[in-house]
Amino acid sequence: MSMLSLRSHVPDDVIAAADSLPDQADVVVIGGGIIGAAAAFHLAGAGLRAVLLEADKVSSQQSGRNWGFVRTQYRDPLELPLAVEALSLWPGLEAELEAPVGWRRTGCVFVAATPKEMAAFAGWHETTRSITCDTRLLSAREVTDLLPSLRGKTEGALYTATDGQAEPALATLAFAQAAARRGARIIEDCGALAIETAAGVVSGVQTEHGLIRCSTVVCAAGSQSYRLLAPLGLSLPQQSVRSTVSLTAPLPPLSDACFCGFGIGLRQRADGSCIIAADSSSDIDLSLDSFRAARFFLPGLLRYGNGFSLRLGRPFVDDLHQRLAVPDRERAIARRPRIQPNGKLAAQTGAAVRELFAGARSIEIVKSWAGRIDVLPDALPVLDAPAEIGGLVVATGFSGHGFGLAPAVGRHVARLAKGEAPATILAPLKLDRFARGTYSAPHAPL
Which of 158, 317, 381, 397 is most open to solvent, judged by the fewest CB atoms within 10 Å of its CB? Predict the structure, then answer.
């Protein structure tokens, strides 16, 4: 992929930034995750001169660190129509992008260990049957037939055979590569400092290497989006949680379908290796910033408190240092994060998989890593062109659900950037729902 990096490398340096940064573009996309890459692909396809800015490397943060589930199953009903649209696009994505993304239609199964979980699955199924017709409830016997290696006693399951999986880094890079072939400029190691406006309309993006003039900006900056929006008078109650994920050595067949149940999530890849993680269990690294917008998150924290562990450590010190030593707008640049996995949680997850599946007795953890998931109070994204700032499109806050949605999100971003009216399914995803108090409680734990 032909990408320009504006950071010096040893032993050879890249072209000087002053000679390389474009002076002008039609649209600048901030953020090189899968949402930003998909947006750049569709914007370039619409004939716009698009520039994608990434402070680190494309796919270097959460878009390359997630589970790789592509599901409609058990989505928030307000998000489900977008997920259905995205799922219809995944099977044709490799042909469209002319690159592998690891797509496989393997299904998705959420197993109920308790009657309460089964009742929740049944309630969701009843509520959403008009939106998706592919999901069905399984009896305990049907779960045994589907998952013969599963040893835990179940109450049944929720199963969607048409859901699937893909490889996060492959898919993100495929979108970026295809965007570049369409003419988009992909610029890595170049952080956005501020979105510039004139008379309430976007006029450019100030980067750490200079100004790019443009009339449209897509803010897809993940957990740093709120920093870029705040100077524009737009409040985004955004926080982040740390999620630990592990990769195993190849194992015998455990589950063709992406699996959630008994406190774990598991995706068995084509080579037999497994991506495993603790389901609905994340670390909150406390910092001074943790108290920003706390009132929005407190109800969810109280409701799903068992799924979070509060940690006080290095992130608190780093946050304090940045507040004292780094100018506010430079704090929006986050690159090469050394996000430590929770080793104890990774070991517990591996042990849980060993106990849960008969074929996992020889499980070996090859490596573990962590990512920071940007979350919003209702665990729904913002996908909106707020009226307060002309030419601004916001696509952020996907709360760990963005990977599977990206093919559809990229299309909607391009339409919003061209000034088209938002699709009806985007109505629940407007930015002003937080200021208006019209957002709801999270559908499920973050």
Answer: 317
